[in-house]
Design a protein that fits this description.
Elements (H helix, E strand, L loop, with lengths): L7 E6 L6 E3 L22 E5 L12 E5 L2 E5 H9 L5 E9 L5 E10 L2 E2 L8 E4 L7 E6 L4 H5 L8 E4 L6 E4 H9 L5 E5 L9 H5 L2
Length: 206
Amino acid sequence: MIDYNREYFYLNPDYQFPTLNNTQDSEGSLSELLRSQPVDVNKKRIQCFAKPIPPNPKLVDFHRVTVCTPAVSERLKTLLESLNLENVQLLPVLIRDEKGVEHPGYYIVHVVNFIDCMDKELSEWTPNLNKKGKASDIKKLILDNKKLDEIPLEKRLIFALGEKRTNVLYHISVVEKILEIAPVGLTVSRLSKSDSSYPFIEEYMS
């Protein structure tokens, strides 16, 4: 059986570039991005640079919005659209920089594809006392290979872990496509290592 822990990756922001936050005049809350259902794509979402703002801030291809939600550039959005992803919304967002200049052409990646597939025997996790079967914290995530083996690949290219929504995983085929365009602003780590000191780019793309 395939070890899916070697086939899934986290996309992480490069914190030398700005993290984003809702403006007061933005429609739609950040909390709705943590829910398990689609949201209204027609809301006018506006993000600004969150404090602390890094020196000489600039907009790149990938910015953190919430712990599990990035905003991506037009070219990354085009790439993701081409993959026909299951239950992934690309929500238009306007980014207002530190000088008040507004930048269109960004999209919040809202994943509503939830899969319960944590191996609860092998993972190191803390149960959520208010939600049966869910985790309040995961120190070490091990995927249940048998459960994932039953799901067609096209339905799990990108998914949020059902047991803890903030763990969003990207299949190696998606990561390879992303890295082909050499995006700026993100780092990639394999789930089985879950350590940014083992970057995917150096391991496979050099």
